């Protein structure tokens, strides 16, 4: 195993918000970079307004923040990158991985991957006009994992600071297995520092990929961290607390996020909506995820939500990622 892997928090639209990142990094260590969920439509007037305050924080609790954008417009990407540089960020990330049809059908996100010439043309216009580090997050392809070969040739000819590949194709969405063989083919021809992303839910998963991908030292983890916020520290051997102590820490963490969302939403009930998305993952660290989720999901007032959370922490055992319940769910439902 690499002695010092770097671990990046994957971006999740609507979940790994500024608030989540702030509270997460206050309570837990182990993460070396934070990626924002993508910004898009950034050239329209006021389109950045809702999340504008985020650009004042190039670090959160001393962890570097990387703003991500989703765009196929070279001018827009250049403007975004230069704006981020002025705000003090060190790197921006281009999203070529989003698989959702309403995005991909317009040749955006992973929908651009079958068109390496288009990727090359955009990079050709952007890279000479920026001086901030420019990284890319993509998949192995949209229709087929062969697409990564032509893409690597394009990426290699530009100054790309890091390339994260979620080792699936766009058409898969989040189903089926990751394709390590195709990821290795990309490593073999890459001249860019590479980051592996996909299906690291437990220490065992990490060790499996770490053994198979000896060239890789940097890892992006998403759902695994949402399910078990201790995961990066577990991987780095930094968790001494027993399961009961962990559960107490998670209780404090989730309470802090809840309070922060209430503050941000001026005590409107939508605060609960935002946090329920996170519970959709976190529930899988408890002994009975379905009962946990049902208890939380049905709440429709702050009092009921708080009661439900207290009930969950009292009645169910915290197992963390070692309970492997999210893995079981994703294998059986194929999601
Ligand atoms: C609800 C949801 C929202 C996501 N939002 C983004 C996003 O804004 N930008 C991005 O690059 N990836 C996004 N992703 C993909 C994740 O960052 C990550 O690549 C994917 O979950 C695979 O990693 P994992 O197996 O470690 O979770 C999203 C995934 C989900 C399920």
Q: What is the SS-derived class? A: alpha/beta
The number of domains is: 2
Over the alpha carbons, how many angstroms does the gyration radius reach?
A: 20 Å
The mean pLDDT is 95
The CATH homologous superfamily of the largest domain corresponds to: Aldolase class I
- Give the H and E element order: EHEEEEEHEHHEHEHEHEHHHHHHH
Beta-strand content bin: 5-15%
Strand order of the largest sheet: 3-6-7-8-9-10-11-1-2-5-4
Largest sheet: 11 strands, mixed
> Number of helical runs?
14
Q: Kindly identify the CATH topology of the largest domain.
A: TIM Barrel
Low-confidence stretches: none
How many extended strands? 11
The ligands bound in this entry are: flavin mononucleotide
Distance between the termini: 29 Å
Describe this structure in words.
- This protein is an alpha/beta fold.
- It has 2 domains: about 40-200, TIM Barrel; about 245-320.
- It is about 45% helix and about 15% strand.
- It is built from 14 helices and 11 strands.
- It has an 11-stranded mixed beta sheet with strand order 3-6-7-8-9-10-11-1-2-5-4.
- Helix 6 (about 180-190) links the parallel strand 9 (about 165-170) and strand 10 (about 195).
- The longest helix is centred in the last third of the chain and has 22 residues, at about 245-265.
- The chain is globular and about 55 Å long.
- It starts with 5 loop residues before the first strand and ends with a helix.
- The mean pLDDT is about 95.
- It binds flavin mononucleotide (FMN).
- Flavin mononucleotide binds near residues 68 and 224.
